[in-house]
Each structure stands twice: as structure tokens, then as C-alpha cells.
Amino acid sequence: MKVMKFGGSSLANFECLQQVAHLVTRSASVPALLVLSAPGGMTDTLVDLAERAQKGDDYQSQWMAFVSRSLELKQQVEAAYGEIKNWPDFKKLEQNLSGVSLLGVCPDPIRAYVISFGERISVSLMQALLGEFNPTYLEATACVVSRGGYLDAEASVSLSTERFAEEMAKLPSHIYIMPGFTASNEAGELTTLGRNGSDYSAAIAAACVKAQVCQIWTDVDGVYSADPRYITKATKIDSLSYKEAMELSYFGAKVLHPKTILPCAKAGVPCEIKNTHNPDAPGSLISDVSQADEPVKALSSLQDLAMLTVSGPGMKGKVGMAARVFSALAQDNVSIVLITQSSCEFSISFCVHQADLELALDALQNAFELEYQAGLIEPVQVKRDLAIVTLVGDNMKAHRGLAAKFFASLAQAQVNIVAIAQDSTESSISAVIDGSLCNDAVKVCHENFFTHIPSIDVFLLGCGLVGAELIKQLEKQQQWLEKRNIKLNLYGVANSRQLLLDENGIDLNNWSGVLAESQQSFELATVEKFVKANHLINPVIVDCSSSSELADQYVSFLAAGFHVVAANKKANTASQAYYQQLMDTSLKNNRKFLYETNVGAGLPVLDNLKLLFSAGDELLSFNGVLSGSLSYIFGALEDGLSLSEATLQAKKNGFTEPDPRDDLSGTDVARKLLIIARESGLKLELSNIEVESVLPQGFAEGASIDEFMAQLPSLDEAFGQRVNEARDEGKVLRYVGSIVNGHCKVGIEAVGAEHALNDIRDGENALAILSQYYQPRPFVIRGYGAGSQVTAAGVFSDILKIVSR
Ligand SMILES: NC(=O)C1=CN([C@@H]2O[C@H](COP(=O)(O)OP(=O)(O)OC[C@H]3O[C@@H](n4cnc5c(N)ncnc54)[C@H](OP(=O)(O)O)[C@@H]3O)[C@@H](O)[C@H]2O)C=CC1
Ligand SMILES: N[C@@H](CC=O)C(=O)O
Questions:
Q1: Best exposed site among 54, 72, 221, 777 by fewest CB in 10 Å?
Q2: Residue 805: predicted pLDDT
Q3: What's the pLDDT at 623?
Q4: Higher pLDDT pick, 318 / 11
């Protein structure tokens, strides 16, 4: 015999009922005991009707809707399958409700009768659908014996086994049908088994009849590695052990009722979760075997919890205190979800469902009244709106590093851990966290333990030459990213006036037109809100502007949980104090601040410096060409172009700063040199750098970029003369930065053919780093040091570092 339990979603309408009948009859070779829930949503309606009646509210419209839905189902079934027998007594139900309404009370036995009415409807409908198989109606109140109240009763396998045998023997059949959720106490009164208790009914029935399998037919394919409503990449688990299933259902997996597993486990009946709407899918099998390639089987989460901490001098070393706390709660029927105790025995903390909080506080107040008065116990501390995230897997046992990975994942999701608990069989680890961050926590943990596909959520500020090229590269590299299992989403793009946000990810081929129509501009709060609403776990702000206003906000970006990738050099060249604050905030908030393109554009300069210095090396001196645009301009001057022609050409090539004065004045090179100096451990301000400008002092001051470019030819002759003088000496001009004995200087140098920088031109950079380990010959980095392509590629590479391990 097999037990087949069908839930409300499988019985929601006439078509669903037909599908259930089809599933039952297609495997009719094995005798079956069907356990049915109420048609989807009906129990909620009945609960609501009882509530309204009790409060004296008008419940007529709900009642009419309930009756009409029931009658419609009845008519549809009768039209196709003939007369329905055992149609439940609606008159009696109505009388009960009106009695409740008149008295203003709804005693538990009446409530149990009202709320279990839907299961009776399902059973009588299904009897008609299966008419040709002559199914036997099993009265649940005759078979399932329960203890402990009318509404959340515990069914007893030992007391029910004989009842099932007797009832089934009265009218032997190949198919039996029984309403779920319903039982009776030893006095024969109707009871119910708690909300969604039909799974439990099925498990009890399976244990009593020693079924070969207990099938739970529902609307999902099985048990998933995480809640598929939130985690789209959650995968179905083929097989779980009873223990794993129990942990999962207890800690929130909705597909299973927590009480279901134990009766099956005790009786050794395998339990199968199947999808009524996808019956050929393999489902999940719960048995005493746990097959797994990975140690962690699934992740579950439970929300709406409160944590109570009982502490005080009277707790320490006092035998029986924990027992008193928990028996006080048990007496008032408060279920405890998780317990932790400090090793000094000074306090006990435990979680309860938030709905039980007041009850729990009252219970403790009553139990410890004298201790409170004597100051032996402090007022109970309460933390509300918490959640528990749990990792489950029998094979976690003796696996080192899982807890570390779990906690690191929570840190990655910016989640603070309030309390932790691990059972001694090592098959589950739980963390109590802020409830509002629960989905974020589950998402990161799932990514790290299951999919191993990290996601990076990009917000791009600045979509000029470098930013637009970056978007092109993101588009081009989609397949490459997919192959490397990285999900990179562009969720936001901004220029100085507009901000475009799209929760589905921005169309990489068609963003500029849509951005142009946006009515909002970039504000940190707007993007923060977007990140929260969409539960993004690796948000990164990529700054491809040259805005000081944005650079000044990096500390706030990092503190708000964003990683920051900057092509913009202004943050790193603001005050030394701000630079230090940036590094500290990044470390403290576990958020990366990456700026490789600040020096040498796409060349790996800063990463190499960091590697050298992290191994204890020290900078002795530095010398090099650090500007792509000036490298290009000085090379072009050598070829006979004028200063203005060469600058225009460098600008067109995308080598200059948005304002070319930043390059020609030496400021951009000074910034780069300052960054190198700071990375080498020197504490300096931009004003400490000695700068020689290509431009005369005060030249084109206050002019716009276009006006400046128009005035530049006035310098051509004088500068041409300087180039010629160098040439006469067999030399060329180069714009060089140097650090010697801690002194930083940028300026023009005339270098001969023998000089290492003589052939550094056309946009190339060359950096010579003389260090403790690299001397007398320096460590040299050379290559193109400007241009939107190499810079965007450098920014891209920084973005990917966010998920590199
Ligand atoms: N070119 C190169 O080789 C290299 C460049 N860099 C750095 O890259 C950065 C970008 O250079 P590039 O692309 O040439 O510059 P562009 O002038 O082409 O683009 C700058 C972008 O930043 C936007 N922007 C300005 N202010 C803000 C703001 N407050 N909020 C949002 N967006 C803003 C601009 O918007 P709008 O159009 O509305 O003004 C524009 O989209 C610079 O900091 C530069 O130093 C670094 C290494 C190499
Ligand atoms: N304008 C800069 C671009 C890179 O930072 C340069 O010329 O090097």
C-alpha cells in the first residue's frame, strides 16, 4: 500500500481534481490510501469565517463566496461523474457559525469542526471522481487518535494503528480516501493537527498501515537547496535523510510540515515529495540514506523570530535554572526554536516565534517573580525581528572549514551574527541574524555553497570615453564571463545629470538613449534603496568620471556596503587623512576599494607595487614617464607637430583627461606620482609634489575647455623653440616623474639617445622602481599608459577582483 497525500494547490479547482484522479488511477496496481487537504485557500476562508463570527463581524459575503465556490465544484464534478455521496452538512456548519456569532465565543471543539470542513469537501468530491474504483471513505476521526487539545493535537501511531486496521477491514478496497488535518481524541471528539497538518495525517497513516511509501503531492518538484521563491538558482535535491528533512522543515522549508518526518522515520517508511503538475519529474526521496556529493545539502531560513536573554547573578552555577526557564515556557505552550548559553553560565538566550513573545515574557515573569525582586535575575533582554539561517547536511560531519565559510558568507552579505548554534551531530549550523537581511544572507550562502556562480552588481558613474568603452567590453565578454561562472550585471549608469536604474539589468546595447530620458540624477540613497529592494549582495560603484564630488563620497559608498572601483584619481589624491580613511573604511566594512587604473591606465603598476611591498620590499627611488598623453604629445613634437596640434591629437585619441589642462599643467602626473608615493608608505599631500607645468602660469585661467584649446596655438612657437634646442643637443623632451629620498617631482627633461626614457613615446609609459630587492637594476614596467580601451580593460579587471579568491 502507498499513501498519497494531495495538498490544497493540487485540489484547487475542477481541473486539478481531475489531474489528481488521473495520478491515482494511472498507478492503480498498488493499493492506495489518499489523504486530502482542503481545496486551495479554503481553510484560510474557514479560519476567517470563525474569526469574524466570533468578533460579531458581518461574515455573510465570505460565507456566500465559500458556499458558491463549493457548490460550483460540486456541480462540475456531478455533471461529469454523477451524484456525490457524503456531501458535508453545510447547514450544520452555518448553524455552528451563527451560534459562534450569537455567543461571541468560538470554543476550540467548534473551531476544529469549522476549520476542518474543507477536507470533507475534498474527500466527497474525490470519491465521485474515483467512483468506478469504488473507493472506501475512511473517517479520519475513527482512524487517527490524537492527544493534547483540539487545534494543534499530536497524533499517536500506537493508538491509531489498530483503528486503521479495523476501519479498513470494514470495507476492503483498492483505494481508500481520508480527510487530512483531522483526528479525534480518546473521547471521540473531533480535533485538528495544526495548520497544514495534512502532511502529518499522511505520515501517521503511512506509519500505521506500514506503507511502502508516503507520497506528498504538492506544487513544486521536491525539496530545494533553498527557497526557490527567493533563490532562482536553487536546485532540487534528489535524496535526503530523515534527519536532514527534519532539520530543513523545522528551520523553515515550506514544502514539508515539521511533524511529518518523524512518524515516517520511526516506521522506516520512505517519504517522496512529488509535483502534481509535473508528475513525471523524479521528486525528492526522504529515507534513511543521504546521497550527496557536497557536504551541505540545503539552506533554510526561518523569519519573524524574537530572541530572549535571561541573565543575572542568580544564574551562575545554579542547578536547574535552565530547566525552570524552559518548563515555564513549555507550560504556556511556547515553542523554543533555538537555544544558546554562554560558557560562564551567566545567561541563556533562546529564540521564539515573535507571535509567542508576549506569552513567553509573561511566563518568565511569573516563574521568576521572586528572583526579579531580589535582583538575582535581570530584566529579560529582547531582540525582535530576527531570522535564523541554517546549513543542513549529514555529511557536514567532520568537514573542516564549513562554519568558517558560512560565517564569511554572512560577513560578505554585510550581516551581523546575533547568535549561533550547532547540533552535536554536526548536521546543521544555524546563525541568528537581523530578519531584514535574511534573504541577502541566504543568497550569498547559496552562491558560495551551491551554485559557485558569484554575482557582481555594477553601478557605473561616468559613461564618457572610458565608461562607454567599459559597457562595450561588458557586452563583448558576456560569454567569456558565463564560461567562468561569473554573473556580472550592470544595474545602473549615470552621467553628471542623469541616473538610469533597471532591476532587470541594463540593456548593454541600448543604454544611452534610455539614460538620456531619465528624470533622476545619482544620489547614494537612491542606489542604496535599489540595492536593498533587489537584495543585491555584491554591489560595486565604478567611478569613470573625474568628479571630485563623487570622489569625496567614496567613504560613504564603502560604509554603505558598496565596493568601489575607481578610474578617477581624485579620491586617492585628496588629503592624506581622507586617503587613510578610505583604506580604513574599506577594511572595516569588508568592502574592496580598487584603483589600478589610477597609475599607468591598464598597466599592472599598483598591483605589482603592492606585491613587492607586502613581501617587505622598500622603495629606494622611482623614475618614469607616467602620462600617456604627454608621452604622445612629446613624441609628436619630436616628429614636428606643434604643441596645439599634438594636444588635439592626444585628446582625439582619448589619452588626455576630460580637461587637457590637467595633463599639460602636470597635475595629472603629480597625482599619479603621489599615489605611487602613498602606496610606498610616504605620507604626502599633493601640494608637496614639485610640479613644472608645460603651460605658462595663469594661462587660459577660467576659460572653458574649448576656449583653452582655441588659445593653445599661441604657445606653439615658444614651445617649438624648446623642442628645437633639445634637438640641437641630440636630445628629446620627456615629461618625467621622480621620487628621490622621499622628494617627489614632475617636469620636463631633455634626454639623450642613451637615456632609458628616450624612446618612450606614442602614449607609452615606462616606470622604473628601484627597491631594496630590485637594485642596482630597477624593476621596470612599460606599455601603453592611456586610452579608453586599455583603461576600461583595467577597470574591468578591477571589477572581477571583487569575486576573486
Ligand atoms: N583616458 C584615459 O586614458 C584614462 C582615464 N582615466 C580616468 O578616467 C576618468 C574618465 O575619463 P574619460 O572617460 O576620458 O572622461 P569623460 O569626460 O569622457 O567622461 C566623464 C564622464 O563622467 C561623468 N560625470 C561627471 N561628473 C559626474 C558626476 N558627478 N556624477 C556622475 N557622472 C559624472 C560625465 O557626465 P557628463 O557627460 O554629464 O559630464 C561623463 O559621462 C577620469 O577620471 C580619468 O582620469 C584613468 C586612466 C586612464
Ligand atoms: N590623461 C592620462 C590618462 C591616464 O590616466 C594620461 O595622459 O596618462
A1: 777
A2: 66
A3: 97
A4: 11
> Which class is domain 2-218?
alpha beta
Q: What confidence category does residue 312 fall into, taking pLDDT thresholds of 50, 70 and 90?
A: confident
- Residue range(s) of every CATH 3.40.1160.10 domain in the chain: 2-218
Pocket test for ligand 1, best of 497, 546, 570, 671 (most atoms within 8 A of CB): 546
Q: Can you tell me the mean pLDDT for 462-481?
A: 97
User: 236, 570, 672, 731: which one is catalytic?
Assistant: 672
**CATH entry, 455-598, from 3.40.50.720, 3.30.70.360, 3.30.750.24, 3.40.1360.10:** 3.40.50.720
Q: Is the CB of 465 under 6 A from ligand 1?
A: yes
Among residues 446, 528, 524, which one has the least CA distance to residue 487? 446
Ligand 2: centre distance to CA 559 (Å): 29
Neighbours of 106 (CB within 10 A): 20
Q: Which pairs count as long-range contacts for 362-370, CB under 8 Å and 24+ apart, including other chains?
A: 362/332, 363/328, 363/329, 363/331, 363/332, 363/334, 364/308, 364/310, 364/325, 364/328, 364/329, 366/328, 367/324, 367/325, 367/328, 368/310, 368/324, 368/328
Task: Report the atom number in ligand 2 closest to the C-alpha of 627.
Answer: 8
- What is the distance in A from the centroid of ligand 2 to the CA of 650? 10
Segment 85-103, tens digit of pLDDT: 889 999 999 999 999 999 9
Distance, CA of 364 to CA of 302 (rounded, Å): 24
Residue 653 Cβ contacting ligand 1 at under 6 Å: no
Domain with CATH 3.40.50.720 in the chain: 455-598
Nearest-5° angle of CA 276, CA 281, CA 283? 80
Specify the CATH superfamily of domain 606-786: Dihydrodipicolinate Reductase; domain 2 (3.30.360.10)
Concerning whether 745 is annotated as a catalytic residue, the answer is no
Residues 298-451: name the CATH superfamily.
VC0802-like (3.30.2130.10)
Ligand 1: residue whose CA is nearest its atom 42: 546
Give the mean model confidence (pLDDT) for residues 542-555.
98
Give me the chain's average pLDDT, please: 94
Task: Specify the residue with its C-alpha closest to ligand 1, atom 16.
Answer: 464
For residue 545 and ligand 1, the question of a CB distance below 6 A is answered with yes
What is the model's pTM? 0.76
